[in-house]
Amino acid sequence: MTAPSPRGLRRASRAPGKQDRKDQSSDQRDDQPEDRRKDRGRGRRRVTGPPKRPPAYRVCFVCTANICRSPMAASVFRARVREAGLSHRVEVDSAGTGGWFEGEGADLRTVAVLARNGYEDEHTARQFRPEWFAERDLVVALDEGHLLALRRLARGPVEVEKVRLLRSFDPGAAEDEMDVPDPYYGGIERFQLCLDLIEAAATGLMDEVRGRLAEEPGNGDGADPL
User: Fold this and answer.
1) Could you state, in order of their start, the residue ranges of all structural domains in the chain?
2) At 94, which helix (H) or strand (E)?
3) What is the pTM of this model?
4) Among 60, 63, 68, 194, which one carries the catalytic annotation?
5) 182 a catalytic residue
6) pLDDT tens-digit map of 64-85
7) Which region ranges are annotated with the description Disordered (predicted)?
8) What class does CATH assign to 57-215?
């Protein structure tokens, strides 16, 4: 019988050791109580962010060219929203049915009347686009002509229902006087009259928006106060 070579002896002596270590390691893992392995993940806190705010409620005022009545209405209503402490819940903007002055500021008489009554006057004119309906919750027309024009742009009954006349929110407005008249061809007193009519309707509009916010899911369960 031929004696084994020294190299063969070394391989034979090492191989069982490696296997033994693997088996031992496997046995040690198997010997650990199942509950101990489960406990490894316990006690770790899940990191969560702050609760999500509900999406903003968006209101858009629309007149003819977006340089007189609608920027005035937007400025007044923003002030009402701030006073109500709802700036984090309500967004306000404005537009015109036409784009004649797109990119320009408000009429100087609008700026003067707003400043005289303590309202902000930052504004850039733009034209209302049909796709904006999907991004707005309420589209407020300043007169009957704007109401009809906007409803023609609407793509279905859901969008039609978003369009309302501003003075419909004024309980003191007569049924045959629902328009805020265009002051463009008048003097500063016509612009002041517009502001007065807008202010009279703003309170009722604020009540409407509050009611809609209260109807949103989650407002009765830890949501931001109205």
Assistant:
1) 57-215
2) strand 90-96
3) 0.76
4) 63
5) yes
6) 999 999 999 999 999 999 999 9
7) 1-52
8) alpha beta
